[in-house]
């Protein structure tokens, strides 16, 4: 996540206090030769090769213009950055779910070049394209997130006397509730002199939710200390690790469990029918 933040994951931008309009810069530890030697061989043909998300040291293919991106995805290519969609009510939530999009970088004010950051090991993140120079990114992102939650709560209260909706509310799913707690924790983080602890940010456990609010079968920790984060397979409803799935620093191949009755992810309609 130095070039999932050329990185283009400006998750850091969402954490900025209102007085700090620039992006927070995190510095990853240097990659040792031993760490790099342990990386799996890159077999794909890449337009551009970047470091993996977080503070990992292994090479991955950069995401290109228009491709989806987010906290858990490879970084965007040179000159690009991962942005939430302009009309997003919950930009933080969108980036965590990998629903951002690689777009041309937009600078609010002069900053150090991406090339220099890449060489120095500095990590920036994914930020909202500035609407106004004075706009506080943190307030916009967190306010929208909180307002969306409050709106959902009001709607649910008003509909308590109505017949139950046949579809589970995404905002009440276990994965979405877990994600909301993490985003709330991020909004409370404080950074001094525009710098922050990278480890504090990446030690947070981001649940990987799908568009329906269920857990994606593949869950991963962020890469830290130059090591790739561990990945494992979970039950889409509960988020609990599957008994036969091991945590690995790579692809746990969760698709192999789709054919099994024990681990086949139930559909929302099927879950509702059982209630």
Automatic annotation (TrEMBL):
IGF-binding proteins prolong the half-life of the IGFs and have been shown to either inhibit or stimulate the growth promoting effects of the IGFs on cell culture. They alter the interaction of IGFs with their cell surface receptors. It comes from the Eukaryota. Residues 172-254 form the Thyroglobulin type-1 domain. One of its GO terms (molecular function) is insulin-like growth factor I binding. This is Uncharacterized protein. Gene3D superfamilies: 4.10.40.20, Thyroglobulin type-1. CDD domains: TY. Its main location: secreted. It holds the Pfam family IGFBP. GO terms for biological process: negative regulation of developmental growth; regulation of insulin-like growth factor receptor signaling pathway. Keywords: Disulfide bond, Growth factor binding, Growth regulation, Secreted, Signal. GO terms for cellular component: extracellular space. SUPFAM superfamilies: Growth factor receptor domain (SSF57184), Thyroglobulin type-1 domain (SSF57610). Residues 24-105 form the IGFBP N-terminal domain. It is found in: Secreted. Residues 1-22 form the signal peptide. PANTHER family: INSULIN-LIKE GROWTH FACTOR BINDING PROTEIN (PTHR11551), INSULIN-LIKE GROWTH FACTOR-BINDING PROTEIN 2 (PTHR11551:SF5). Residues 256-275 are annotated as: Disordered.
């Amino acid at each position: 996540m130095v070039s999932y933040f050329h990185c283009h994951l400006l998750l850091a931008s969402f954490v900025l206090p209102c007085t700090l309009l620039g992006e927070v810069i995190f510095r990853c530890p240097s990659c040792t030769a031993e760490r790099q030697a342990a990386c799996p061989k890159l077999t794909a043909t890449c337009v551009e090769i970047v470091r993996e998300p977080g503070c990992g040291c292994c090479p991955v293919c950069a995401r290109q213009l228009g491709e989806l991106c987010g906290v858990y995805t490879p970084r965007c290519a040179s000159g690009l950055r991962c942005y939430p969609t302009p009309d997003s009510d919950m930009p933080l939530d969108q980036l965590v779910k990998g629903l951002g999009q690689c777009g041309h970088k937009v600078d609010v004010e002069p900053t150090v070049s991406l090339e220099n950051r890449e060489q120095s090991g500095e990590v920036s993140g994914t930020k909202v394209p500035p609407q106004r120079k004075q706009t506080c990114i943190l307030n916009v992102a967190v306010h929208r997130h909180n307002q969306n939650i409050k709106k959902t709560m009001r709607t649910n209260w008003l509909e308590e006397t109505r017949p139950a909706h046949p579809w589970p509310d995404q905002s009440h799913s276990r994965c979405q509730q877990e994600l909301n707690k993490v985003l709330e924790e991020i909004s409370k983080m404080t950074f001094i002199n525009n710098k922050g602890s990278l480890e504090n940010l990446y030690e947070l456990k981001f649940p990987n939710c799908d568009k329906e609010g269920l857990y994606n079968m593949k869950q991963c920790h962020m890469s830290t200390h130059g090591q790739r984060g561990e990945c494992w397979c979970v039950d889409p409803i509960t988020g609990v690790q599957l008994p036969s799935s091991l945590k690995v620093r790579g692809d746990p191949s969760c698709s192999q469990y789709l054919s099994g009755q024990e681990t086949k992810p139930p559909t929302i309609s099927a879950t509702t029918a059982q209630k």
